[in-house]
Amino acid sequence: MKITLTSVSIDDYDKALKFYTEVLGFVQKRDIPLGGDARWITVVSPEEPNGTELLLEPNAEYPAMKALKESLVRDGVPFTMFQVDDIQKEYDRLKKLGVVFTMEPTNMGPTTVAILEDTCGNLIQIYQMTGV
Length: 132
Known about the structure:
By secondary structure, the chain is of the alpha/beta class. Helix content is about 25%, strand content about 35%.
């Protein structure tokens, strides 16, 4: 068994695609029309173009997802995490692009983490392995 697809809850395809590609630096892999306004949009790391895909899932307005996202944000809990090689460099780059952080890079022992807002109502953690 392996992980090939995971998702992040979004409220707007174009806004999410712009943030995850132009800001975070992922690359669009798929954009499949599903009828009406529905689309299957995935992005991948440019470092692993055949690696795990991140589905931009338009379910942010479903009552259960809306409640979950609001609870996670209220508690300061990230929806998902992405690893980076140099967290300070990535933090500085994203700050210059206007990304809002709820936690600056913070040493947590074997990792250093920072938490950002993704413009889609999610908190996203970036982390760098530092001691393992």
